[in-house]
Design goal:
alpha/beta, five-stranded mixed beta sheet, 13 strands, globular, binds arginine
């Protein structure tokens, strides 16, 4: 009988421990109903500041616009959204420009709070960072020179020849698109989208995979650029990348995005960015 009781106790203990562990694993992250709750828990890498990393080679999302004095200024709808989010959360904004392929590492090492750089919420990135809700739909395209438009009319034509040189930005989801739709071509990775555009214009690349909204913005300034083929991509849409383990920040950013979408601010940011990016822009191309 004693032995039986002992076994029962052991079994109960093991069962309770397993249950507690399972409960802890499935426990939902804390949810936030109000901005006040968010603010009470909000922690950023520098207290009182929202530190945002971006890659300003990506008009109309983020780029350098030349002002009246000929000075390059960070512009784009991601930058206006960054100001809006900081303001919403009562934080001072600091923007750190860097190459796109460095941003996730900066978020992982907690050097910044957010990445606002037209990020697609790619599932392979979700181990490293969290994502906000979607705030914009950009689409995916293959671009080439207008004079070569006849060579690129279908998705299949993007893989038609081994001699094709096809560009994509290092670290971007466009690398995956190139590997999927141009698997047998010479895929060339470049750090900056502006360099990819410059190489397509120069003819050193036959074409490139670029966000449709970006390709369209550069095509305004460079009419010889042609959006040839629409490319399917499952995780379409842009989200803010957020340093992991910061449920309050995720909730606060999502509240700010919801408000910016509802009150017309986001539409205004996009309109301003499209206008500015059709003016004089800087970043490799026009300096
Ligand atoms: N949406 C693509 C991605 O997440 C490209 C983003 C590139 N952004 C930039 N600022 N260059 O991979």
């Amino acid at each position: 009988m004693k032995k039986f009781t002992a076994i029962l106790i052991i079994m109960l203990t093991v069962f309770t421990m397993a249950f507690a562990q399972a409960a802890a694993e499935t426990a939902p992250a804390k949810t936030y109903a109000t901005l006040a709750e968010v603010k009470a828990d909000l922690k950023t890498v520098t207290a009182g500041k929202l530190t945002v990393a971006t890659s300003p080679d990506f008009a109309p999302y983020e780029f350098y616009a030349i002002d009246a004095n000929g000075k390059p200024n960070l512009a784009g709808f991601d930058m206006d959204l960054a100001k809006y989010i900081a303001n919403f959360l009562g934080l001072e904004l600091e923007v750190i420009p860097m190459d796109f392929d460095g941003i996730i590492l900066e978020l992982q090492t907690k050097s910044c709070d957010l990445g606002l750089a037209g990020f697609s919420p790619d599932p392979t990135r979700k181990e490293a960072v969290d994502f906000s809700d979607i705030y914009y739909q950009g689409g995916q395209s293959f671009v080439c020179l207008k004079k070569n438009a006849d060579n690129f009319k279908t998705l299949e034509s993007l893989n038609a020849s081994k001699t094709l040189k096809v560009g994509a930005q290092t670290g971007s989801i466009q690398v995956g698109l190139a590997e999927e739709f141009s698997a047998d071509t010479d895929i060339v990775l470049l750090t900056k989208v502006t360099d990819i555009i410059a190489e397509v214009l120069a003819g050193t690349l036959d074409g490139a995979y670029i966000e449709t909204a970006v390709a369209a913005a550069y095509a305004v300034n460079y009419p010889e650029l042609f959006l040839a083929v629409e490319v399917p991509y499952e995780e379409e849409g842009s989200a803010a990348a957020i340093s992991k383990g910061n449920a309050a920040l995720v909730a606060g950013v999502n509240m700010a995005i919801a408000q910016a979408l509802a009150d017309g601010s986001m539409d205004a940011f996009v309109a301003t960015a499209n206008e500015l990016s059709s003016g004089e822009i800087y970043e490799g191309l026009l300096d």
